[in-house]
Amino acid sequence: MAGTGIFTEILDGEVYKYYSDGEWKTSSSGKSVAIINPSTRKTQYKVQACTQEEVNKVMELAKSAQKSWAKTPLWKRAELLHKAAAILKDNKTPIAESLVKEIAKPAKDSVTEVVRSGDLISYCAEEGVRILGEGKFLLSDSFPGNERTKYCLTSKIPLGVVLAIPPFNYPVNLAVSKIAPALIAGNSLVLKPPTQGAVSCLHMVHCFHLAGFPKGLISCITGKGSEIGDFLTMHPAVNCISFTGGDTGISISKKAGMIPLQMELGGKDACIVLEDADLDLVASNIIKGGFSYSGQRCTAVKVVLVMESVADELVEKVKAKVAKLTVGPPEENCDITAVVSESSANFIEGLVMDAKDKGATFCQEYKREGNLIWPLLLDNVRPDMRIAWEEPFGPVLPVLRINSVEEGINHCNASNFGLQGCVFTKDINKAILISDAMETGTVQINSAPARGPDHFPFQGLKDSGIGSQGVTNSINLMTKVKTTVINLPTPSYSMGHGFISRL
């Protein structure tokens, strides 16, 4: 169970501790932050409400620890990461349990997230050893007007302190996708977990602690965003911010100084369905893409743009599959579970009511109990409805009927988001042309949008983000190039003649 066994030391009575200087500590604030179970709507856990002074201490320690860590051989960094990955996977059960309780993720999917996270850490360790173990050697005479009198050696060096802020929906996986690249690259890491998902993150951090990473190198600060959020993101000790979430990321980007930013801020992922598409394949992917984890995924299908001639048939196929989705508690591995909070449920309901008032066709009866919203397919949605543009982050999916491919592309590109999209057709030539025209970071052909495998590049355009994720891209973003130039008194060419005379 969460907070027991090897995790006993991370709990102080009813409140989970925060992690600093290689120790689990209680905040001097004497306050805690409640984590509400989305299913029961009752307090499930409590975490420390850390102070700004504790943030300052963590940053001071992180700066100091990073200096030593940067001198640690790559193979040793990788060895510790592999060890942390193994400990994480060995303890998947209690960590998955906390995911079930604090974000209502189905039990089976919670275990999958933890195992996937362990695999990501190990892959990152291996990739880091390869790409950071190589540099570049440049010769000056490759540029016009120069003799071979300069040898340029380049390598990748760490940035310093990386601040990682993962979201509630994948708190473990999207934390380690930031932590592992930062550490293998020689950085120190300060983690600010989401409130919903904080306990899962604390368990995960303990796995790194048990692996034996140096004190101060990894920290995990919990607390209210209103009290320490801006203080963290604007802290002068921070050299890089990796954030996954929503509109908060835009605010962070405006306040952060001259530091690298890696941000994924959501999407309105469009699914364009052509007349020649395999509609059974489309329907299966709409269910998987639109309703997995109750639609609370940045890469969920958020709007279906289907050619009018096949719309009736597709809607009927999707309706039949929606009817088979199970609804209930995450402990029972139901397909649809409670959304993360009451405010989220209220927002989703607002979008539904707006669509109802404006004449959308309800393919199912709208039903809600607390934070639990039954899956809903909305047909005949028009562009004047909010749900045609806004991201519900819930089990509600709009269908817009289109009369041309251009109409679908235009709707996709009119969005302020540009994370992912997908197109279904049997004509690969059309698929490539549509993919090129869609203003999104990724386009999936004949499959629903998805983040992963975790080594694939993952990025968004427009308000969907800055920078690119994926193991290799994250490592590169969390390093900078260092150049050393050797200047020779006279030109020197390999195997050249006249060596003795030049001396």
TrEMBL record:
Keyword NADP among UniProt keywords:
yes
Q: GO terms for CC?
A: cytoplasm
Gene3D superfamilies according to UniProt: Aldehyde Dehydrogenase, Chain A, domain 1, Aldehyde Dehydrogenase, Chain A, domain 2
CDD domains named in the record: ALDH_F11_NP-GAPDH (cd07082)
The record's GO molecular-function terms, alphabetically, read: glyceraldehyde-3-phosphate dehydrogenase (NADP+) (non-phosphorylating) activity
The active site lies at 264
Q: Which reaction does it catalyse?
A: D-glyceraldehyde 3-phosphate + NADP(+) + H2O = (2R)-3-phosphoglycerate + NADPH + 2 H(+)
> What top-tier enzyme class does this entry carry?
oxidoreductase
- The main place the protein resides is cytoplasm
Q: Where in the cell is it found?
A: Cytoplasm
What does the similarity note say?
Belongs to the aldehyde dehydrogenase family.
| Name this protein carries in UniProt | NADP-dependent glyceraldehyde-3-phosphate dehydrogenase
